[in-house]
Write a structure and sequence with these properties.
This protein is of the alpha+beta class. Helix content is 28%, strand content 40%. The chain is built from 3 helices and 8 strands; from the N terminus they run αββαβαβββββ. The chain has a 5-stranded antiparallel sheet, with no helix packed on it. A 3-stranded mixed sheet has the order 1-2-3. Strand 2, helix 2 and strand 3 form a beta-alpha-beta unit. Helix 1 packs across helix 2. The radius of gyration is 17 Å and the shape is globular. The N and C termini lie far apart (49 Å). The relative contact order is 0.13.
Length: 162
């Protein structure tokens, strides 16, 4: 039996490979592609960035218009889905190796499936990672090692209070 999460990841990879250059040519950077089923609906989310600042609604519309027909022609997704193009936001999701590499030395939030030392959420500086674990530094004093299979979510930390 083929797992649905592997099918969704394969679709994401195909779409990323197909639209990355198109988005680059428009002056943006493709940060991530997420294809997910939520309830009975499917969503294809395209996250973009640009060098010189914030993503606007016009930017999202430009990318949407440039990729819609291509996605329809390629027909990677057989189900009806909603296409969403947006900015990564300040607390961007960290899902791929390239995202981890970009965030070495940065503060991240990690949510866990099972608690470590009575906590299921940590904020710390990403020190290093490999295929099995991440090591983060907490409060400039203590390092903690977290198995990747125990991680439910990683995102860039943004201090909303400052």
């Amino acid at each position: 039996m083929i797992r649905e999460d592997l099918i969704l990841a394969n679709i994401e990879e195909k779409i990323e490979n197909r639209i990355s250059k198109i988005i680059d040519d428009l002056g943006y950077k493709l940060y991530d592609v997420q294809y997910a089923k939520e309830g009975k609906d499917y969503f294809l989310r395209i996250f973009i960035e640009k060098e010189d600042g914030e993503i606007t609604l016009d930017d999202c519309e430009n990318v949407n218009n440039a990729i819609t027909n291509i996605l329809d022609e390629e027909d990677y997704i057989k189900e009806q889905y909603f296409l969403e193009v947006s900015s990564t936001g300040v607390e961007k999701m960290i899902r791929k190796e390239k995202h981890l590499k970009e965030n070495i030395g940065e503060l991240i939030t990690i949510k866990l499936f099972k608690p470590i030392e009575n906590s299921k959420e940590y904020i710390g500086k990403l020190i290093k990672y490999d295929e099995n674990k991440l090591i983060i530094e907490l409060n400039q004093e203590k390092e903690i090692e977290i198995e990747r299979k125990n991680i439910s979510l990683i995102k860039k930390f943004y201090d909303w209070d400052n």
